[in-house]
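Objective 1.3, modelling of assemblies. Example input:
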Amino acid sequence: MRSYEIAVVQGDGIGPEVCGAAIEVLKATPVSNCLRFVEYPAGAGHYRATGDAFPRETMEGCRKADAILHGAAGLPEVTFPDGTEAGIDFGLRLRFGLDLYANVRPIKLRPGVTSVLHGRKPGDIDYIVLRENTEGLYAARGAGVSLRGEMAVDSLVVTRKGTERIVRKAFELARARNGAPGDGKRRVTCCDKANVLRTYAFFRRVFDEVADEYPDIERDYAYADAMTVHMVERPERYDVIVTENMFGDIISDLAAATVGGMGMSPSAELGDRNGFFQAAHGSAPTIAGKDIANPYGTILSAASMLDWLAERHADEGLRGAARAVERAVDAAIAAEAGRTRDLGGSASTREATRRVIDALGAAQ
Ligand code: IPM
Ligand code: MN
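Predicted structure (tokens):
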């Protein structure tokens, strides 16, 4: 039986709690014997202690591992001299260093979760925000200019190569899905501001070129500002939305808010060789250490890690385990006692995790 090395970075704030929850769940799956967890330090706490937010050994450990699992990193008060946050250096440099260009953020209203959008039930909202993850406005991280206390400039970078590969990924994802919940159509929406900036007009031009290769999938466009309105007013129309890095950061939070909040929002950051799995939320330091954080986003990210490994290694056992974890999460949330505070319940992090593990056990 093949075994997989999982690099684990717990991080700061609620990071260790939600990451610990996901590992406990993975250890309760039938594939636990195939998973080897190796912990590495990174983040704001590590920066405070050592002056280094992302040690070289952590980078190398992540590079050589079969997958990377993360809690969350960063503390607002721990900053570099330029004023930016030190702890988030881990996730950001990992994206660039391992070329994790595709940030896949599934937005799905799950049974037991009440949407803030009126009248939406499970099944009505089910789309992917596909965020370009290595260029756009984030490409300037650490490389912008801040001049004499008078001005600062960061550059927005859009390349042909970067756009082609993310758009192709969007169409491939759409091909593998069942279409938008509203009308069952497979559809990829290009979210940009092509009306205003050359970078986005270029992004849209490349989108059109790639879309020509996928005549079976509907192409669609939305300006980023209008996109936020559509996501609130008619979310059932969406299937896959592809967008620039910064827009993807913003609209994926809004999208998460429509399906139960950031605690229900998994993500997978994928390159051609490496995969990095964490919930889309941050380290939430104000609720850290209180056993009240919602662990489901990280647990669902761990399920998508199993899925990604299954696909890469043609390992059906892992695929089965991924589905089992997802079903166990749904079973845990279906009961009111399994819902954490953010979902309107009172379950602790540990209680929610225990319920997922119990559901896994019951299914075996
Ligand atoms: C995310 C987060 C990160 C980002 C932060 C923590 C650097 O908000 O993954 O969406 O801005 O990309
Ligand atoms: Mn974000």
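The chain has a mean pLDDT of 97.
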